[in-house]
Description:
mainly alpha, 88% helix, rod-shaped
Amino acid sequence: MKEVTLENVAEKVDSITKSIDKMAIVLDSVAEKQEHFDKKLDGFTEIMVDRFDGVYDRLDKIEFNTSGQERRISTLEDKVRIISTKIGLDYNK
């Protein structure tokens, strides 16, 4: 077993200090990358919210137009039923 001396302890402390410094550099790099990623994600989120808003608007228009078409079809069916009855045709066949 190696003898414990002040010099050995100082070397070990120096080694640990260097390891901590390297870890701090790595953590700083990770933090910078995380910050960059967060900014990109925020921008992406804003874009997606805008696009989904556009999709919702288009779906609302489609739904409005569809309900209008349903009313028109219903009106046409009523008119065909009336005409069929007047000319003596059985509309339900």
